[in-house]
Amino acid sequence: MRVLYTVLLTLILALPLSAGPRYNIVPTPRSLTEAPGEFTINRNTALVVEDSAFAEIAGDFKAQILSSTGFALEGKGPKIIMRKVDGLGKEEYRLTVTPENILVEATEVNGAFYGLQTLLQLLPEKVYSAKKVRGVKWTVPCCIIEDGPEFWYRGTLFDSGRFFFPKEEVMKFIDLMAMHKQNILHWHLTEDQGWRIQIDKYPRLTQIGAWRKETAWHSGIGNGEPHGGFYTKDDIREVVEYARRRCVTVVPEVEIPGHCTAAIAAYPELSCFPDRHYEVETRWGIWKNLYAPTATTFRFLEDVFTELFELFPSPYYHIGGDEAPKDVYKESQYCQDLMTVLGLEDEEELQTFFVKRMGDFLRKNGKTVIGWDEILDGGALEDPIAMSYRGHAPAVKGIKRGIRVILTPNRWCYLDNQQYDQPDSVAQEIFMPLKKVYNYYPAVDSLATLSKEYIVGYETCLWTEYIWTNEKAEYQAYPRNVAAAEVGWTARANKDWDSFRRRMPKVLGRLRMKDVNYCDAFYDVLFDYNRNLPFPKMMNLELDCPGAEIRYTLDGSEPTKKSPVYSGEPFEVNKGSVIKARGFISGKPIGKTAVKTF
Ligand code: ACM
After folding, report:
1. Which atom of ligand 1 is nearest to the CA of 372?
2. In CATH, which superfamily holds the domain spanning 153-161+176-183+247-467+491-497?
3. Where is 249: in which H helix or E strand?
4. Could you identify the atom of ligand 1 that is nearest to the CA of residue 322?
5. Which of 65, 67, 285, 307 is deepest in the core (most CB within 10 A)?
6. Residue 323 CA, closest ligand 1 atom number
């Protein structure tokens, strides 16, 4: 008894330290009014759905609660009420929690869905468990939340072109996005290295185009292992339906006129030189194969899109447009003649002609065209949305011309960038830790007023050149994509890194419940310095470890609670310096020791 009592007492005393904030909602809502007390879900709790419009999402919510808590929400006691009200925006909701009941109010399904996501986050994170968990008190802290997003486009690109990821993995990704209120999966489906989608009229696209004989890494030397795969139409329908139930729109991307080697390998007549031999590309990079601007190609692309219309109800279609060197257009007599006939000045205008032709087709079919920022170069598309990925300059250009833009500047938004400074798996060289993702905001401050009107959203991109498994995909994307979710949803004035980092333990707890292989570096010291300064220059180094005191050594020894404390000021290091650093909270080490040899 005495031992038990001591254990209990220790647990109770430890509680305030580990409890963290009372509300841990990510993304931060527009307004949260705290209130004392809590609502408890137990076997008496009932879910009351007042309007059948919300029945489907209510059913999914019930299933989640049942799987983890074991409660069916069909009791006769305190109620969780879902109410349809007038006057809220499409994605807005109001959530009122009192000890007596919970009220979720929304005008549309999307808002109601987000109300339920917030409610799940207010519960202990074990609510996300796929298996029943015992011994948890399922409480929801009282509050009034009024919420809605800053941007309607809150996306992530998933690149299935470089590597093929089975549909189950794509669906898990969608689930993680939806739980953090991201609403667009931009699905990159065609590439030089693989065509990933079944098209009935052109079977060779997947017979030939979905497979490459090997993969060549940085050095260009192949690994000798064939790679490939594609989504059948049934797979696509399943993914799109899965996304729909989670208020995620799947925007397909079919790249034109470049990044098309896999299609050309399957159908060489789509190229400028049909007699040449083409193979699905095994190396990463920018390749010179382009679709030829011929009647054959336009018929092909129209057929492809026509089959896609059946699969993707999205009003937005992405047509790529990036990284298309014009060598073959210069070399091809046909292209040169066509330019003369059309009165085009140069090959860039030929690309504009091509993209406009396809853009007009999509528009006629009720679709809004999204393209990478190169689509701004030609300027002929009618009311497109441009994705500014080469920094903010393209966004400025687009906004000034009255074109809507989505911001995804690669230094802040590409999830294949390095997030961690320790010996780590291969990634792109740009250093993009969690805090950098969090602190980005999609605005052009020099055009503040226009920016509000023309910047419709923000997207992170999970390019997969260096991501060959789902474990690696999750490692690169999480937890950074949670920070990204807050960037897209939360008003700038409500964004606060310190608040976010205090919510991180719960964020990570939820990701663990979902079996996400996230990068577990949050409590490790990050080394921040100008990576572009070549030695032997001295460099200023800053150390960062959220919420912790940092202690470090310069003699190779393991930092302890007696090692020097980092002052918070930058200090200078020389070539050859070895720094070991670790965070301490209340004298206890957290995370792992971070090591850097300069
Ligand atoms: C891109 O990064 N080429 C869109």
Report:
1. 4
2. Glycosidases (3.20.20.80)
3. strand 249-256
4. 3
5. 65
6. 3
* Residue whose CB lies within 8 A of the most ligand 1 atoms, among 192, 259, 389, 464, for a mutation test: 389
Give the pair of three-digit tokens for residue 408. 């995804």
Ligand 1 atom 3: residue of nearest CA? 322
User: What separation in Å is there between the alpha carbon of 451 and the centre of ligand 1?
Assistant: 22
User: What's the pLDDT score for residue 12?
Assistant: 41
Report the separation in Å between the CA atom of 156 and the middle of ligand 1, taken as the mean of its atom positions. 13
Chain segment 158-217, per-residue pLDDT in tens: 999 999 999 999 999 999 999 999 999 999 999 999 999 999 999 999 999 999 999 997
Ligand 1 binding pocket, CB closer than 6 Å? 322-323, 372, 389
Q: Which residues contact 245 (CB under 8 A, 6 or more apart)?
A: 56, 57, 60
Q: Which of 111, 127, 113, 147 is nearest to 246 (CA)?
A: 113
Structure tokens at 484: 């990204």
Residue 330, CA distances (Å) to 378, 393, 494, 592 in order: 18, 28, 52, 55
429, two tokens: 């060289």
Q: How far apart are the C-alpha atoms of 512 and 361, rounded to whole Å?
A: 45
Q: If you measure from the C-alpha of residue 193 to the centroid of ligand 1, how many angstroms do you get, rounded to a whole number? A: 15
Atom of ligand 1 nearest to the CA of 414: 2
Fold of 2-147: Chitobiase; domain 2 (3.30.379)
Measured by CA distance, the residue closest to atom 2 of ligand 1 is 389
Ligand 1 nearest-atom number relative to CA 320: 4
For residue 410, which atom of ligand 1 is closest to its CA?
2
Beta bridge partners of 579: 596
Element of type H or E holding 463: none
At the topology level of CATH, where does 522-597 sit? Immunoglobulin-like (2.60.40)
Domain range annotation of the chain: 2-147, 153-161+176-183+247-467+491-497, 522-597
Helix segments in 70-122, DSSP class H:
109-122
548 CA → ligand 1 middle, Å? 37
* Sheet strands (E) in 13-152: 31-40, 46-49, 79-84, 93-97, 101-106, 139-147
Task: Pick the range with the lowest mean pLDDT from 274-278, 429-433, 458-462, 508-512.
Answer: 429-433
Measure 415 CA to ligand 1 centroid, in angstroms: 12
Sign of CA dihedral 556, 560, 564, 568: positive
Q: What pTM was estimated for this model as a whole?
A: 0.94
Q: How far is the CA of 389 from the centre of ligand 1 (A)?
A: 7
What is the 128 CA–ligand 1 centroid distance (Å)? Answer: 34
512 exposure class (CB count in 10 Å sphere: 0-12, 13-18, 19+): middle
Question: 92 C-alpha vs ligand 1 centroid, how far in Å?
Answer: 32
The average pLDDT across 490-502 equals 96
Q: How many CB atoms lie within 10 A of CB 447?
A: 17
pLDDT confidence tier of residue 530, bands split at 50, 70 and 90:
confident
Determine the Cα–Cα distance for residues 307 and 254; give it in Å rounded to an integer: 12
Which atom in ligand 1 lies closest to the alpha carbon of residue 463? 2
